[in-house]
Amino acid sequence: MLKRFILLFLVALTPLSHGEELRTGLVLSGGGARGMAHIGVLKQLEELNIPIHAIAGTSLGAVIGGLYAAGYSADELEKIALETDWQNALSDTPLRQDIPFRRKQDDRDFLVKQRLSFDRGRLSFPLGFLQGQNLGLILETLLVHTNDIDDFDLLPIPFRAVATDIATGEAVVFEEGHLPLAIRASIAIPGFFAPVTVDGRLLVDGVLSKNVPVDVAREMGVDRLIVVDIGTPLRSTDELESIVDIMDQTTTLLTRRNTQEQLATLGPQDLLLQPELGDIGFSSFAEVADAIAAGERSLTGTSEVLAFSAPASETRPGGNMATVRPQRRPVIDEIKVLNSGIVADQVVRNMIRQEIGQPLNLERLEKDMGTIYGTDYFSRVNYEVLHGDDSNTLLIRTSGRQTGTDYLRLGLNLEDDFRGGSQFNIGASFRVNGVNPLGAEWLTRLQVGERQLVYSEFYQPLDYGSRYFVAPFIDAEARNIEVLSDGDPVVDYRQVRYGAGLNIGRQISTHGEVRFGISRYEGEAKVRVGDPELRSFSFTEGFYTLQLDRDTLDNVNFPRSGDEGRLVWRQSEPNLGADSRYQQFEFRYNKAFASGPNSFQLGGFLGRTDSNVDIAQSSFLLGGPGMFSGFRQSGVAGQNYNLARLVYYRRLNPTTFLPVNMPIYLGGSFEYGRIYNKDTDGLDTGYIGAGSLLLGLDTFLGPLFFGVGSNQEGESALYMRLGQTF
Q: How far apart, in whole angstroms, are the C-alpha atoms of residue 686 and residue 680?
């Protein structure tokens, strides 16, 4: 109250010092993507030299208003709005290139993307579809220069953000605190974003209480207001055609009453602007440029606005905002971690690559935040720069997941060649995270169907940087192996093997890892289909294995950039109990690149087995789209193979900015290679060409595609597949 009294007192003195100058307040309403019109309004206000002395905003109005109050010009805001990757901003998922390598490997199965969370053994559900992690990080980065300003009256333009207490329905007006957090609370759309906890209160979007905070701006000591209302008009029954329309309509209905109440208080000295935004919706972030243009047009022909202009000789508050904005890259003298997660503070600290004594590296810090969040230990990760008298401290804050850090994922994999050859697999994985402060994990996979699998691994990092690790495991599987001779099936084995092993290794940044392992298996191969006179047999295996992996793809199913590679060498060793000594080597590499909606993958693959060990025991399973198209999926067992391929696909539908997003692709592959066994009368395709045409959908269950493939061996097949693509 004392601060407000002093502010009003100073306002009262202003006319005595500045003649007839009137103070103007700007009110910016919420409205999702429609709020981008505020930027167009600000551009015109600057063009007309209209000074703004105070800003109050709600939801996206708080975002635009807060950034403007913090020193950004309208042109800078337009550039930010047009260049922001809104699909990424409106998600929690960090860029895949930045997440830890171990989390990338979670994508390498057919499991559903969505997962169930468990907290101390109990199923737990989040308070919002998204935590708002990426949007929060964007705000932190844009507003890092305000970290030493707790009083919003000390910003270049005084500012207020409005949120709503979800427990009481009351409006919460932020006039002090951490500016990015205040804005983040103001834009927490209920159900979509999880509420933000501030001083023990659960806060959500301010549109529920004060969508157009006229009274808040008046209390900031202004004489008149420019109010920008970008609320969505109600749609008719015929216009409600999708879930997006229903969401927009619901938000409009919830805010309609409090908006009308606030607008009713406007007087003749105030100016109301309602940009004509047409059918630009709450979630239409693809139409940012159109919304900005509509905001600019809203002042055209409005004669009342001329009364707000200042003489050309006068400098409006903030002047050239860029010149008064404080240093955004201060020298960092210390790094501290405030961690409420289940792993040690040192684990978080080791993921921060900021150098002490060097200017703040925002680009690297954003990637580090993605890496920390990508560990799946935290519901929120952010940072703040604390400015002292002689030093600057980078403070990293992490909040442990309220829904727990143990995850269950379910999956379904279907394959059909439409000629009677069909396969299915049903699987599940359960991962217990943060078993100890170093971040140990216990992962268990189960699968039934054509390939049966039980796998359990305990992954224990050996240092706080999670660089070195040890990983004991047990493994059991059963699968079908079809043996061909001169292109014709001879016998179909059912191979069952079970064993255990130990891997030691090292992480290589977030891009890969190298492992060395020892393992031992017992197994048998029984004739499932074929001449009963053919022998079934048992075997014992013992391996030394060296494996090197790399993965920088931006998307595991339909990548547009990055690469992936795997190099595996293993030796069957009698000293470990194996029946025979032999070596196998496999190399796989894919490079992805894109141009517009068109994406390409160039790949090379090589597999070798160096002795005449039984085919059913030592074969690579090949066949299917992109891996010798025309053959059935995993329908060819070969001890040796070479393959080069080009994969192309094109996205057919536009990008959306909703969590429910189903891209559709049309594409195909061209392959050239050979599959062969060592024995002279065995399988040898010679070098053959193969290709496929595919229609793919990236669904919430995983990639689904239909296709047709053929090869120069005269084989062809139709495919339907739910699960991994290429």
A: 13
Catalytic residues: 59, 205
Determine the Cα–Cα distance for residues 399 and 455; give it in Å rounded to an integer.
31
Cα(414)–Cα(426) distance, integer angstroms: 9
C-beta neighbour count of 488 within 10 angstroms: 7
Residue 486 clears pLDDT 60, i.e. is over it: no
Whether pLDDT at 315 is above 60:
no
* Phi, psi dihedrals of residue 435, rounded to the nearest 5°: -60, -30
Three-class DSSP category at 39: helix
Q: What are phi and psi of 314, to 5 degrees?
A: -85, 145
Average pLDDT over residues 81-91: 88
User: Does residue 66 sit in helix, strand or coil?
Assistant: helix
Q: Which residues pair with 725 in a beta bridge?
A: none
d(Cα 95, Cα 86) in Å, to the nearest integer? 13
* Cα(240)–Cα(697) distance, integer angstroms: 26
User: How many angstroms separate the CA atoms of 627 and 637, rounded?
Assistant: 12
| Cα end-to-end span (Å), the chain | 64
The b/e string for 559-584 (b: 16+ C-beta within 10 A; e otherwise) is bbebbbbbbbbbbbbeebebbbebbb
Residue 301 in tokens: 């022909």
Q: What does the alpha-carbon distance between residue 629 and residue 483 come to, in Å, rounded to a whole number?
A: 18
Average pLDDT for residues 398-425, to the nearest whole number? 75
Number of helices (H), then strands (E), in the chain: 16, 35
Paired with 387 in beta bridges are 392
| Cα dihedral 481, 486, 487, 490 in deg (nearest 10) | -40
Please report the pLDDT score of residue 483 as a whole number.
65
- Please tell me the distance from the alpha carbon of residue 493 to that of residue 532, in angstroms, as a whole number: 11
Tell me the three state secondary structure of residue 534: coil
* R_g over Cα of the chain: 31
Q: Which residues contact 46 (CB under 8 A, 6 or more apart)?
A: 73, 74, 316
- Our measurement of the distance from residue 228's CA atom to the centroid of its chain's CA atoms, rounded to an integer in Å, reads 33
pLDDT class of 628 with cuts at 50, 70, 90 = very high
Taking Cα atoms as reference points, which of 223, 312, 271, 269 lies closest to residue 24?
223
Task: State how far the Cα of 217 lies from the Cα of 215, in Å rounded to an integer.
Answer: 5
Least confident range from 416-430, 593-607, 678-692: namely 416-430
CB-based contact 542:578 (threshold 8 Å): yes
pLDDT per residue over 10-35, tens digit each?
A: 444 444 344 457 899 999 999 888 99
**Nearest-angstrom CA–CA distance, 147 and 393:** 11
pLDDT, tens digit, for every residue of 490-541?
Answer: 667 788 999 999 999 999 989 999 999 999 999 888 887 766 666 778 889 9
For residues 115 and 568, what is the distance between their CA atoms, to the nearest angstrom? 30
Give residue 378's identity as a one-letter amino acid code: F
How many whole angstroms separate alpha carbon 438 and alpha carbon 384? Answer: 25
- Separation between Cα atoms, residue 503 and residue 517, nearest integer Å: 4
User: Quick one: which of 659, 119, 662, 130 has its CA closest to 408?
Assistant: 119
Are residues 511 and 520 in contact, defined by beta-carbon separation less than 8 angstroms? no
Please state the separation of Cα 500 from the chain's center in Å.
Answer: 35
Q: What is the DSSP letter of 81?
A: H
Q: What letter represents residue 660's amino acid?
A: V
Q: Where are the strands (E) in 113-251, listed by range?
A: 116-119, 122-124, 128-130, 159-165, 171-174, 191-193, 196-198, 201-205, 224-228
Q: Which of 638, 645, 607, 609 is nearest to 623 (CA)?
A: 638
Amino acid code (one letter) for 70: A
CB 644 within 8 A of CB 603: yes
Beta bridge partners of 224: 24
Q: What is the DSSP letter of 24?
A: E
Q: Are 51 and 309 in contact (CB under 8 A)?
A: no
Candidates 644, 626, 624; CA nearest to 635 is: 624
